[in-house]
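From the methods appendix. Each design record in this collection lists the discretized structure first, followed by the designed amino acid sequence. Records were kept in a plain field format so they could be parsed without special tools. The example shown here is representative of the layout used throughout.

RECORD:
C-ALPHA CELLS (311 positions):
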C-alpha cells in the first residue's frame, strides 16, 4: 500500500478523535458546561464577534480561547475574568518560527504558553495587541481552592478593537472629544443621557472611577444602565452616599465608569454623557457641558453635517 495513503488515513483517524474530544463554540456569547465525571480535556472557543461573554460552568481541564475579529489589520483584545469558587490562570499562547535544520533551512513553528495573570474573584482589565494580524490565543486553566464552597464558574468578558497608534498615548482616552467625535458619539453610543454628576468613587488598584449620574433626560440606552430609585435626604447606592438633589420624588440614576487616571471630580453643571457598554460595564466616551453640545448640535443641523436624527 502507498505509504502516503497510510499516513493520510492515520491523520484522518487521529483528527476525528481529537475533534470529538473538544467542545467547540463559535458564537458571540457562549456557555460551556462540563460533567465532573468526564475526563479532563480542552475546550476550544472561537467567538465570531468583536465583543461578548464566555461562561464556563463547572470548569475542569483547560479552555483555549481564540480571539479573531475577522479584520485584516492589527487589533487590541481586552478581557476581564470573573472566577467564582475556583482559581483561574490565564496564559498567552505564543507562536514562534525557528530553523529546525540550518542546512536545509527547514522552518518549524514552536508554541509555548506565557503566563499572563491569575485571578480569584474578579480581575482588572487586561489587554494584548495582536502580532502580524494573527489571532490572540489565550489558554485558561482552573484550580480548585481550599475554600471553594459552591459551584465553580469562570466568566470571560472580551472586547476587540482595531489597533490605533493613539492607544500608545496613556492619556488619549482622557482627552476631550472634538466636535466630530461628539456628533458620532451622540449618534452611535449605547447610552446618551443629560444629567449631573451625583457622586464619584475611585478604585486606584483597578485604574477606574465610578461616576454616579443623576439623569434629567434619557435619550437612549441599550440596556438598563439608568433606573428609577427612591430619592431620600441621603440616598445610598452600593454603600456610597449620593447627593439628593432638589426634588423629593424618585430619580433616574445610573453609574458609568472611566479611567481613574483621568481625575474626574464632582462639580456643578449639566452634562451630556455618552458611552458604550464594554466588558460588561457602561464606559464613558464623551461628556461635554450640555450648553456647549446644544451649540454644536445647532451648527451641525444648520450645516447638514448631523449624522442622525433626534427629537
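DESIGN:
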Amino acid at each position: 500500500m502507498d505509504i502516503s495513503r497510510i499516513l493520510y488515513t492515520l491523520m484522518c483517524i487521529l483528527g476525528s478523535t481529537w475533534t470529538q474530544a473538544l467542545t467547540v463554540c463559535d458564537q458571540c456569547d457562549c456557555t460551556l458546561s462540563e460533567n465532573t465525571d468526564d475526563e479532563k480535556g480542552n475546550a476550544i472557543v472561537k467567538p465570531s464577534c468583536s465583543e461578548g461573554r464566555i461562561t464556563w460552568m463547572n470548569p475542569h481541564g483547560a479552555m483555549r480561547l481564540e480571539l479573531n475579529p475577522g479584520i485584516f489589520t492589527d487589533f487590541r483584545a481586552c478581557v476581564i475574568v470573573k472566577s467564582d469558587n475556583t482559581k483561574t490562570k490565564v496564559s498567552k499562547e505564543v507562536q514562534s518560527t525557528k530553523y529546525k535544520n540550518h542546512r536545509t533551512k527547514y522552518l518549524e513553528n514552536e508554541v509555548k504558553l506565557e503566563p499572563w495573570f491569575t485571578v480569584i474573584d474578579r480581575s482588572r482589565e487586561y489587554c494584548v495587541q495582536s502580532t502580524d494580524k494573527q489571532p490572540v490565543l489565550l489558554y485558561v486553566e482552573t484550580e480548585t481552592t481550599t475554600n471553594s464552597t459552591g459551584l465553580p464558574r469562570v466568566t470571560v468578558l472580551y472586547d476587540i478593537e482595531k489597533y490605533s497608534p493613539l492607544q500608545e498615548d496613556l492619556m488619549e482616552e482622557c482627552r476631550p472629544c472634538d466636535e466630530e467625535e461628539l456628533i458620532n458619539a451622540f449618534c452611535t453610543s449605547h447610552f446618551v443621557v443629560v444629567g449631573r454628576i451625583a457622586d464619584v468613587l475611585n478604585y486606584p488598584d483597578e485604574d477606574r472611577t465610578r461616576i454616579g449620574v443623576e439623569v434629567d433626560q434619557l435619550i437612549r440606552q441599550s440596556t438598563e444602565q439608568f433606573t428609577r430609585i427612591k430619592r431620600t435626604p441621603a440616598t445610598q447606592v452600593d454603600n456610597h452616599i449620593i447627593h439628593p438633589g432638589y426634588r423629593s420624588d424618585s430619580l433616574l440614576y445610573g453609574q458609568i465608569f472611566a479611567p481613574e487616571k483621568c481625575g474626574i471630580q464632582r462639580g456643578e453643571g449639566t452634562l451630556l454623557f455618552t458611552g458604550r457598554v464594554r466588558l460588561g460595564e457602561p464606559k464613558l466616551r464623551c461628556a461635554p457641558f450640555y450648553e456647549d453640545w446644544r451649540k454644536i448640535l445647532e451648527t451641525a443641523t444648520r450645516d447638514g453635517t448631523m449624522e442622525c436624527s433626534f427629537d
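APPENDIX NOTE: The radius of gyration is 24 Å.
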